[in-house]
Structure formats: structure tokens, C-alpha cells
Description:
Elements: H1 14-17, E1 23-27, E2 33-36, H2 38-44, H3 48-52, H4 56-59, H5 66-76, E3 82-89, E4 95-107, E5 110-119, H6 121-142, E6 147-152, E7 157-160, H7 162-168, H8 172-175, H9 180-183, H10 188-203, E8 207-215, E9 218-230, E10 236-245, H11 247-305, H12 310-338, H13 347-362, E11 365-369, H14 380-401, E12 405-412, E13 416-423, H15 438-448, E14 453-458, E15 464-471
Parallel strand pairs: 11-12
Antiparallel strand pairs: 1-2, 1-5, 3-4, 4-5, 6-7, 6-10, 8-9, 9-10, 12-13, 13-15, 14-15
Amino acid sequence: xxxxxxxxxxxxxxxxxxxxxxxxxxxxxxxxxxxxxxxxxxxxxxxxxxxxxxxxxxxxxxxxxxxxxxxxxxxxxxxxxxxxxxxxxxxxxxxxxxxxxxxxxxxxxxxxxxxxxxxxxxxxxxxxxxxxxxxxxxxxxxxxxxxxxxxxxxxxxxxxxxxxxxxxxxxxxxxxxxxxxxxxxxxxxxxxxxxxxxxxxxxxxxxxxxxxxxxxxxxxxxxxxxxxxxxxxxxxxxxxxxxxxxxxxxxxxxxxxxxxxxxxxxxxxxxxxxxxxxxxxxxxxxxxxxxxxxxxxxxxxxxxxxxxxxxxxxxxxxxxxxxxxxxxxxxxxxxxxxxxxxxxxxxxxxxxxxxxxxxxxxxxxxxxxxxxxxxxxxxxxxxxxxxxxxxxxxxxxxxxxxxxxxxxxxxxxxxxxxxxxxxxxxxxxxxxxxxxxxxxxxxxxxxxxxxxxxxxxxxxxxxxxxxxxxxxxxxxxx
Length: 478
């Protein structure tokens, strides 16, 4: 666009200056605009003829103040000019932020000021968006339960969140500028972290691994993920490392794994006990009951062979009656091993039977204390569970405790029954109990199925106490 000097429109080379991305104003001593390029018209929303008739102070309103205008002119005439941020008024009245570079310009032996004006609205918006995003990032990472650190391409620390500062015990100022190779320990964990960050930096792809880190007296298991951050040219500029503490998760997994192993061992032990019990019952049936039945058959055959001798028949009948009584006792013993009949009569009679059997077989005194007034009423499943727990406890006392006194105390509350089994035996260290102690494990599993609790306490030389708590069923008969 060529403009002639008669209408004041041809002072600078339009063909070059109209291609500049910034707005250009050429301002004379009277503050009138001697030249403007197309970018200035676009930026302010004027047509050329409208804008060229204005003074620069109509756009730059701060220059309406004579003192400010005089200072601006003076500073602009210096060799280095002046650079500042300001605001220009558009034709619509909207005020826009601009960056202005003013410098002296001589045209036809007249001093003027050339203003190069850059519209910084988009830059300001980008800056505000960046600051907003940065604030959101900081708000996120500073309240995150994860450990977070950002490194530049030289592996120097740019940022760590408060959780990291708390863990290592330093301030943000001390952490800023850390070099990764100077701060990590030279052990397997440190080298794995260094390789993780380096691989992300070299490949431009995220990488992750699990690391064990020791801090003070505890070991943390961290799941560390390194993520590359890029600039607009697609180049990696920073690496964000995020570490999540999964120690508790791994502990739970190990506990679950150990529990599964215990259950497998318990199931295997229960199966072995069942097989042993079956063998014992089969032996009793085969050896004792079978022998008794064979003797009965032989005795009956003898009676058949002696029909005319009443005395011998009477003797043989007496012998067979005694043999039948023994056979009945064998059947009762086998039945009792499978399930004592006392269980059908309720908890207290079953515990009394257990006490009597324990005293008879071990020679140790055993006292049973039950509520006098309030009857103890449980459903069949609970009665069986309590019976087996007490039975197992007494068996353990007989085998290991070397006790001389044992007490079984039954108490009831509004919603639970509490049974304590105490002995004055040698006791044991609670920490030394093996994980595969099937007796205790079986007790816990049996009680756990009824949503009850078992607490065992023992001190070497001071005996042992097992406390069983089971919730009461409202109407166990229904």
C-alpha cells in the first residue's frame, strides 16, 4: 500500500513495515501520528483515515498529562530509547495491554519518536493460564499423599512437595537445585531410581518400578513412576517423579498370603486328624467290636452244641451277657469319640463331662464355675464350638502346661457369653508361638466362623489364660 506525502500517508517504506507483526506509530513533537501501519489499525479497530487523524495521546491516554508526555519524549530521544508496558484504548473503548518500545527517529531533519507496539493480550492470557495451571499443580501436589519431585534435563531438582521435605527433613530452599547423583544413596535402591529417571529422560517415555527405601527405623515400599514433560517443540524439558507409598498394601498382601498358607496347612492338618481319627475308630470297630461279635457268635454256637447241660448253658449265657456289656461300651466309646451325647443336653452338662474326663485322665484338679441363676442357652452349633475349644484347650494343658490347677469360668452378658480357661502351668512366650500351631489356629478358625473372639495371654512361669467370647443368639431354639 503506497501512500503519498500530500495526505501524510507516505513517510516510511510501507511495503516493509506493513509486514511487521507489531503495530508501528510514528509520532511527531505535537504528539500527532505521522505514520501508522496496517497492524496498528487492526489492533485498535480503526480504519486508516480515522486513526491517522488522532494524536498519540488519544491512544496512549497517560500522555494527556503534559509532564508524563515531556518525560516520555525525553527518554525516547536517548540512544537506547525506552521500553515499557502500558495500555492503549481501542476504537470500541476497550483497554488492551501492550508492550511499547519508543526510540528516536529523524525524518526530513525533524525529530520524531517511533513506537513499536506489541499486543500482549494473548501473551497475558497464556501467562494467566500458565499461572493458574501452576497454582492448580501446586495445590494438587502439595495436598497429595504421594511423594513428588521435578527434575530438569541436568537431573537437578526444581521442585519437591511438602511430603518429600518432611521425609528427608529439609526446607524447599535447601532442596531446590539438588543434583540427583549427589542426593541419592549409592545402593541398589538409589541406582534403580537414577536409572528410572535417566531412562525417562533418554527415551521420552514414562517408566515405573517398585523400590524399597529405608527412612529412620522403617522400610517403605514405593511405587515410583517417572513421567516426561515436553515443551511446544516436543522436547523433554523436565521429569516428574511420583512415588506412592504401598508399604501397607504389600504388608496386607503378605498377611493374606500367610493366612492362605496357614489355611492350607490347617486344612491339611484337619484332614490328617480326620484320617487318624477314622483309622482309630476303624481299629476299635475291627479289633474290639469285631472280636466281641466273633466271640458272641462262637458262644452261641457252644450253647447250641450243649442243649442238655443247663449249668454249662447258664455259665455260657453269663459270659455272653458280660461280653455284650463290653460290646455296648465299645459302641458307646466310638459314638462318644464321634460326638458326645452330653452335647445334646446343653453346654453346662457337656462342660461337666469334659471336666470329669480331664480330671480322670490327667490327675489334675479342674474347677468349673457356671452362672447359678441365669441358664446358659446356645444353639447347637455354638455349643459344639465351645465344647471343641474347651476340649482342645484341656488337651493342650494336659500335654504341655504341667499344671496342677485348672479353672473353667463361664460368664454371660446381655449379648455374649465369655468362657475363661486358666491354668497355673509353666506358660510360654507369646512371641515364640509358631505360625503352624494347629491347635491355636484351629481354635481361632472355629470361633471366627461364629463371629466370636479368642484372646490368649501367657507368661513363662505364670500359667496361661484363654478367653473365648461368643455373641448370644436371641432365640436359639427357633
